[in-house]
Amino acid sequence: MDAETIVSDRVDALDPEHILGRGVAEIEAVQAVVERLLPPPLRSIVDTQFSVSHLLFDEYVLRLAIQVMQDVKLDAAIGTWASAAEAATRAGLDPRASQVPVDWLLRHLAARGAVTSERHDREPRFLLERVLPALAPAAVVETQRAHDAACLPAYTIAETAARDYPAFLRGERSGDEILLAPMRLPLWVAYFSNDNPLYRVNNRIGAAALEAWLPRGANTILELGGGLGSGASAVLEKLTAAGRLGDVKAYRFTELVPAFLRRAERWIKERFADAAPLSFASLDMNRPFVEQGVAPASVSQVYAVNTLHVAHDLAFTLGEIRQALVPGGQLVVSECIRPSVGQTLYPEFVFNLMSTFRAPRLDPDLRPNGGFLTPEQWTRAFSAAGFADVRVMPDIARIREVFPSFYAAAIAGTR
Ligand SMILES: C[S@@+](CC[C@H](N)C(=O)[O-])C[C@H]1O[C@@H](n2cnc3c(N)ncnc32)[C@H](O)[C@@H]1O
């Protein structure tokens, strides 16, 4: 098998031992190509160890998706051609809650050849031509444990979601109840962590981009949706290592969820007490920033990791950000990127349960779907909001030719 094809769409589920064993040599060959396409600060971030975990987790989520299909009898529902909505009705699922996740499940399995799909009156429809394979998700967990146990928090979150998927699709439980119950907080602490290689890639790429594009001088950084603080922590570590903390006059960390904000403040202050002038505040990116203590033209960088894709009205939030920036100031975001239109990505299996993720205000040109956007869609949205010099790092448009599921990138634009 040549390097060009190893990580392209697979027809069947892969044996986890294949990914870990024979596959490693093939993944290394792809890595060698990808590495040439990465700017130097990112080369150590996307290594073979990460890519193997990425493929293992992709396999795990595929197995969970198959299990959910069987649990709610969506497999039987596509015994004859059906659109996603028809399949949901046939399976007796709640039409509102299930619309996006069922469409995602069917397209995800179709992309891997487990389900047949075609366009009918411009709408995709689906058919199960052969029984879905029974593949044990637990086998992948064990392979991951042997390869790199630090990724297991991602598996725990996905397994938690899978367990309650049937209740969610039937409209019996909300995504908030399933994922954001107070007892789940430790799972998120472990997941949104720089100790979790499957998540930290976003924080590290963001930190590398922020540092690379940070001008010398007294910068005032405003972080949005800082969550539990792993993004800020990666930035402060990166700037410390680069000897550039002196270029930060103020770092204002903001977050919407009070419990996240409190925990992040405690944790960051413990670790970076003397690093930079830090402040912590609540900020809802769906509301005018001025009302929340962010004056127009008062910050030189706005930074966010995996936050802007949950803005209810992306154009509004981009407008607020632009207004908060001084002329010449920059917006830098690190995002999970959809490499190409319509492609399904494993984080969506979990986050499709959240209405903030799956159902923002849509715009046919600038926000055609909920969740993740392609590099081209981000670039258009930034430009439409008035940002100049919009750039993407790394260049996903080139990387996706060899590594079609590579999904992390930073996007920046200048006021
Ligand atoms: C995927 S998490 C990323 C968290 C953090 N940036 C990290 O990388 O660890 C998205 C974050 O956005 C926050 N969020 C959701 N809606 C928001 C809003 N309207 N305004 C500000 N933050 C919001 C969530 O509470 C959550 O912490």
Please give a structural write-up.
The protein has 415 residues and is an alpha/beta fold. It folds into two domains: 16-127, Orthogonal Bundle (Arc Repressor Mutant, subunit A), CATH 1.10.10; 197-339 and 374-414, Rossmann fold (3-Layer(aba) Sandwich), CATH 3.40.50.150. It contains 18 helices and ten strands. A seven-stranded mixed β-sheet has the order 6-5-4-7-8-10-9, sandwiched between helices. The termini are far apart. The structure holds S-adenosylmethionine. S-adenosylmethionine is lined by residues 192, 203, 224-228, 230-231, 255-257, 260, 283-286, 305-307, 310, 356.
Keywords:
415 residues; alpha/beta; Arc Repressor Mutant, subunit A; Rossmann fold; 2 domains; 7-stranded mixed beta sheet; 3-stranded antiparallel beta sheet; 18 helices; 47% helix; globular; disordered N terminus; binds S-adenosylmethionine
In short:
The chain is of the alpha/beta class and 415 residues long. Helix content is 47%, strand content 15%.
